[in-house]
Amino acid sequence: MAQSRMLTGEDSGTARPLPSSTLSGAALRARFIQWMAPIAAVAAFLLLWALCVRVFRIPDYLLPAPQDVVLRMIKEWRLLMSNAAYTLVSVLVGFAASVLIAVPLACSIVLSRSIERIITPFLVMSQTIPKVAIAPILVVWLGFGILPKIAIVFLISFFPIVVSAVTGLKSVESDMIDLVRSMGAGTRKIMLRVRAPAALPQMFAGFKIAICLAVVGAIVGEFVGSDRGLGFLLLTSTGSLDGTLVWATLFVLIAMGMILFGIVLKLERLAIPWHVSIRLDEATAYQS
Predict the structure, then answer these.
(1) Residue 51 pLDDT > 80, yes or no?
(2) Fold of 64-287
(3) How far apart are CA 196 and CA 147, in angstroms?
(4) b/e sequence 235-274, b meaning 16+ C-beta within 10 Å
(5) Is residue 206 within 8 Å of residue 218, measured between CB atoms?
(6) What is the pLDDT of residues 136-175, one digit of tens each?
(7) Do the Cβ atoms of 131 and 152 come closer than 8 Å?
(8) Can you say how many angstroms the Cα of residue 227 is from the centroid of all Cα atoms in its chain?
(9) pLDDT at 271 over 70
(10) Can you tell me the distance from the alpha carbon of 84 to that of 230, in angstroms, rounded to the nearest whole number?
(11) Could you tell me the sign of the dihedral formed by the alpha carbons of 60, 63, 66, 71, in that order?
(12) What is the rounded distance in angstroms from the CA atom of residue 35 to the CA atom of residue 58?
């Protein structure tokens, strides 16, 4: 008993920390489980899909087998990648434009009640209009190039960024603002050093929603008027009842959305490692 107490450090009232090798091994196992769990779930889903197609003899134009979709992706990879690059450009440009305009606008709304009263009705109106209905108008105005797709991506991802940024900027305690103002800080310093850091978690929540909606917006724009892109490829392959190409395009589209979401998630972890949501996720992953 005395020897076990000496090993655990109970005599000094504190437990001896685990060796670094043990910690690294536990962390590696946690990371391995964290990555393998979703992969195993996806593999099980694809296996169930393949079995259903084989057992019920579903024709390819309704639902092709996943292995046929993968083979078609390998065969048509040049076609898929060229169209995916066109869609990706509209997604990234439209999303970047929405961030660059929405965040300063949110700051203006927080700082001025008059601007808030003027802008808010227009923000709500922009979301009540279906994007499928406004897409043909944008094509007429901007032509059949990439500009209408960028405009639709901007419109569909702009609103969640503004709302989340305004909510985050307004969530700072008034006592904290009064304290910083009593130290001689002006409106700009309060916005940059108090409100903005406190609003980052809410902003990134809006960014994550907006990046997924941006992919949808690009596809909607390509449905209405385009001769390139994944949306155009979906439209043409559906019209010709080419089921394997439809699902191959959907797989590429899903992969694009997941990668973009993962990039925003990684940027969030780098920007706000101090936030409780990030620290809780890391602690949960380690304990699992």
Answers:
(1) yes
(2) MetI-like fold (1.10.3720)
(3) 31
(4) bebeeeebbbbbbbbebbbeebbeebbeebbeebeeebee
(5) no
(6) 898 889 888 899 999 999 999 999 999 999 999 998 888 8
(7) yes
(8) 27
(9) yes
(10) 6
(11) positive
(12) 32
What are the CA-CA distances from residue 149 to residues 27, 72, 91, 93, 130 (Å)?
43, 27, 8, 10, 15
Closest by CA position to 126, among listed 97, 92, 152: 152
> Six-digit token pair at 268?
């969030």
Tokens of 249: 């395009």
Shortest CA distance to 166 belongs to which of 101, 84, 105, 231? 105
142 and 150 Cβ atoms separated by less than 8 Å: no
Q: Which amino acid is at 79?
A: L
